[in-house]
Give the backbone structure.
Amino acid sequence: MEAGPIPTSTPMMKTMLRCVLSLLLCLPLLCRIAEAQPPRFRVLAFYSETVEHDHVDFAHQAISFYTEAAKRGAYRFETTRDWDDMNATKLAGYQLVVWLDDFPHTAAQRAAFEAYMEHGGGWLGFHIAAYNDSGTRWPWFVSFLGGGVFYGNEWPPLPATINVDDPQHPLTKSLPKSFLSPPNEWYVWKPSPRENKDVKVLLTLAPSNYPIGMKDVLTAGDLPVMWTNTRYRMLYTNMGHGDRIFTSETQNKLLEDSLVWVATMKQGR
Ligand code: ZN
């Protein structure tokens, strides 16, 4: 018995087959084009492994967290433990520098960072990154932070209620008015960066937390935990102690958004 025409021989099926075939042929090319798309921006995160253990834990978790976030956000997230990478040639390739658990200690590293920031570079600092005291001897950095000098901390690391200062701000507008932040070692600064007219405080430790701490207790005072000095493309956040920081969905979204916000912000927003 002679077989009838097979369905693929109808004009419509032929057209469909041609479409599928062309798509399949083009697929590797499309993939190559997608891979070749330049990242939206490039980030270089500095960290140390010879610092306080809890800070190293945070740095390692932050690297995993932002490596995943970079895939979602289509940006390049690179890391280095070599703080001598803080030089003009290296920094020229990045729109944002992140300090996860340390800060530059040599004059050359500091000078390179100053020049980078004074010429439009971006900075995101966590926790100990903003540490400064009379022994740090880096007045430019104190001014860059908005004037706050490290004054003390509570201990042990504890969760805390955080208040949003400006619910209209692009970084905080999707946050509730207040949220519970996972255990962290909370730092207090004197003077408070809020006293600087160029500083915009985004988050503050809620007064309802006081007294906070057991070994070291904070009983009162203005305690900003996230702020930007609007004279620079910069953002500081006090979160960054221990291995519990990334256990809050609310805070995770904020930390993911924070990096993108500061990397893409125009100075003075
Ligand atoms: Zn700490």
In short: Residues 212 and 241 are 16 Å apart (CA to CA).
